[in-house]
Design brief:
heterodimer, A: alpha+beta, five-stranded antiparallel sheet, 3 helices, B: about 150 residues, alpha+beta, six-stranded antiparallel sheet, 6 strands, about 30% strand
Chain lengths: ~150, ~150
């Protein structure tokens, strides 16, 4: 078990959470403002739902919970987002998120970490999103690509 | 009667430069979401908003968080299909090239297949991507949208 310290320590089988929280109207609006999604469904003009991409920040929520010492010696490089949506994420409803490190391996000199995140309603345990996230832990190669993530 | 999109139909958003501000907005939103107290919470220096830190990490300069392009793709899908695109289905994106400051991105989707299911939904499978203004793809992926009968 490698939780309890740095994100870079995480290893296959580690479980992060569960963590309970409620998606607020403010968070949805502010997130959508940041990524320029101004559609009425996110702005709360009628019923408000959360963009499913917010599940990526659930990973950071789980990191903070499971790895209180922070990122570790190297920045991460986010290389893949893969979310299956089972239902719209409601606003103002208690949610429960849990993460599992499903793999950590070396490939062509780079260290990959795969995390599976499961987002459900806390009250009735209804699956909303299952999300697979892939990062490279260190990327000091000049031809490395992609979307980099955090400090 | 709703529009039915046939395979080969393409959708594109207007070009957008990946400005320093856009990169920083995604940095600042992360702790803002976490603390959820109605205020903006900036982060310590990151590879997305601090040139010196990015160079220390081996990069030529700041690069965009890949989730910005993922969100632009989601936004295109919601523009086309409505809230259904954010409710059921799948979105997978892979970041295949870094996006540097002021690089211009065009967000695209193309219908790969379409069929109706027993629940009366139309299921669209799409190829999705972001390309720069030279046509080079920087983000690629796929989406499945369950479009409800209207």
């Amino acid at each position: 078990m490698a939780t309890g310290r740095f994100v870079t320590d995480l290893d296959r089988g580690d479980v992060m959470g569960p963590v309970d929280y409620t998606m607020s109207r403010f968070v949805v609006r502010e997130y959508c403002h940041a990524v320029e999604m101004h559609q009425p469904c996110f702005q709360g003009i009628d019923a408000q739902i959360a963009p499913p991409t917010l599940v990526h920040l659930d990973k950071l929520r789980l990191y903070k919970h499971a790895c209180p010492a922070g990122t570790g010696p190297t920045a991460r490089l986010h290389i893949e987002y893969d979310a299956t949506l089972h239902a719209a994420v409601p606003v103002g409803v208690p949610l429960r998120v849990k993460g599992t490190v499903t793999d950590r391996f070396m490939k062509r000199g780079r260290e990959y970490v795969l995390v599976h995140i499961d987002l459900r309603t806390a009250g009735d345990d209804r699956l909303l999103i299952d999300y697979r996230d892939t990062v490279i832990l260190a990327y000091k190669g000049k031809d490395d690509a992609a979307g980099g993530e955090k400090s | 009667m709703s529009t039915r999109f046939e395979p080969g139909t393409q959708f594109r958003l207007p070009p957008r430069p990946m400005t320093r501000e856009r990169m920083r907005w995604y940095v600042d939103i992360q702790d803002t979401v976490y603390y959820d107290d109605g205020r903006i919470h900036p982060q310590p220096p990151t590879i997305h908003d601090d040139d010196a830190y990015a160079k220390k990490q081996g990069l030529p300069g700041i690069i965009a968080d890949g989730m910005i392009s993922t969100n632009w793709i989601l936004s295109l899908l919601v523009d086309v299909f409505g809230p259904d695109a954010a409710s059921r289905g799948r979105l997978r994106t892979k970041y295949i090239a870094p996006v540097y400051e002021d690089q211009v991105l065009i967000t695209c989707a193309s219908v790969a297949s379409v069929h109706d299911n027993e629940q009366g939904e139309t299921l669209y499978q799409l190829d999705v991507w972001c390309e720069d203004d030279t046509g080079k793809k920087v983000t690629v992926g796929e989406a499945r949208v369950h479009s409800a009968a209207r």
